[in-house]
Each structure stands twice: as structure tokens, then as C-alpha cells.
Prior knowledge:
By secondary structure, the chain is of the alpha/beta class. About 35% of the residues lie in helices and about 25% in strands. It has nine helices and nine strands.
Amino acid sequence: MKSGFVNIFGKPNAGKSTLLNLLVGEKLAIVTPKVQTTRHRIKGIVTTAEYQIIFSDTPGIIEPRYKLHEKMMDVVKSAREDADVKIFVADITDNPEEVETIFAAFKDKTPTIVVINKTDLAPEKVSDSISFFLGKGYKHVLPISCTMGAGIAELMNLIVSLLPEGIPFYDEENLTDLPMRFFVGEIIREKIFLLYEEEVPYHTTVLVQEFKEKSTLVKIRADIIVQRETQKAILLGRRGAMIKELGTQSRKEIEAFIGNKVFLELFVKVRPRWRDNDTHLREYGYN
């Protein structure tokens, strides 16, 4: 049997999270059009009779501007160390020289696949992009389109071929090693990214304070943390209209995810400069 860790790296908005979801066959990582949506390392486990793959989506590689960014890049660095196979995701619309500069910092002897994503946006660039990365010494370069689902099966076959022989790390029914509370918080945070404009989502995090399973439903209470009173006002909206819509959209997706009715309570709390406060970051799960 083959078994191993396959870790996914790339710039923000290269499509890493969508790729993870496609490879696992479930929506584990939140996906929005805004960059820097992923803040944690999210694992998805695929087990068959022939192999077990533990996929990891990591935050997009950025230059840190505050402590939250530093924590995110620490996650990326730790994921670099335990990979049996690495996937570097490149957006075909980006400058390949700039992308390869980022990839070069992560190159080692680990089997590596360069995935060129979003090929449906610029099909005329595919051949040149493949040639560029092959010319940089990458042995495996594969064009895909997460939007179209193109190349995913070929990528999966290539990953399996590169995995080492080993024993499973997790029981076959496991889909992830993260608790349900984590995914509830991520669903709420995804809706914040989709519903609110400008910088508000980047100043926001979600802390699930209660997750209680009752006989007929699941009771969930979550705090939405912001940095300023003005951001709290935006999240609430006029007469609470926005927070109500956020709650409705979040509840519906959480119910679909956990397969049960949900009673969801959302509270907005102000914590000045939480993104630069080590104590707050640890409390909110950014260790």
C-alpha cells in the first residue's frame, strides 16, 4: 500500500483551496475570490484499498505585514518539512518568473509537481508555461483547470505514482483530522468574505464558543472578532440586516455540512489590534 503527505503550496488566489476540495471530493477549504482566505493548514484524507493520501492546503505565500501573517507563514514552513510529495500551484495568468522565485525557496529532494492552474483563462499560454517550468528543472509539470475539472484525474494518478510505500496514518473513515468546530468557524468566515467588501474580512476572525448537539438540532454560538467599532457597525448593518443575512447563509451551509438542523447565534466583539496580539492569536487558534 502507498501512503504519504501531499502538501500544496502557492501564491494567494492560485486556486489551492479549490484544488484540495477537488482532490478530496469534499468542500473542506473555504473558497472566495479574495486573496489570503486560507489562514490555517487544512488536511483532507483520501483512503482506498491501494493508498492513503493526506492532502494539506497551506496559506498563500506572502510577505508578512503583521503577526497573523507571520503565524500563517510559520504554517507554510512547517508543511514544507513533512511532505512526501509537494504540489506547487501556479496561476497561468501570473508572471512565471515571479512564481518560480517563490517556488525556488521550497525546492528540495522531495518529489514535486508543478500544477499550472486556470488554463481555461489563457489556453494560448499553456505550452510556453509548461516549457518554462520544465526548463527550471521541474520533472513533473501538469496543466489543469479547477473550474473546468480538467486534469484532476491525471494529477491524482501522478500523485499516487510518486507516493512511498507505507501504512495508513488514519482510519479509513476519516476525512480530516480537524474538529467540526473548526469547519463551522471557517464557513462563517467564508460568508464574511463573500458578503462584506473592502478590508473588513481581513480584520475579522471567528471563534466558535459553543457547539452542543441536542436531540433535534445542533446549537452553535460564535463570536466574530473585529478590530474597531466601525467594523462592528459594518458587520451588523442597518438595524442588524447584515448580521441576519450572514447568519442565514452560514446556518444553511453548516446544516448541509453536518447533516443536521442548526440553531446559530452570532455575536460581534471588538478586540483592538488582535492581529498583532500574541495572546489573542493563540486564543483564536493561530498557534
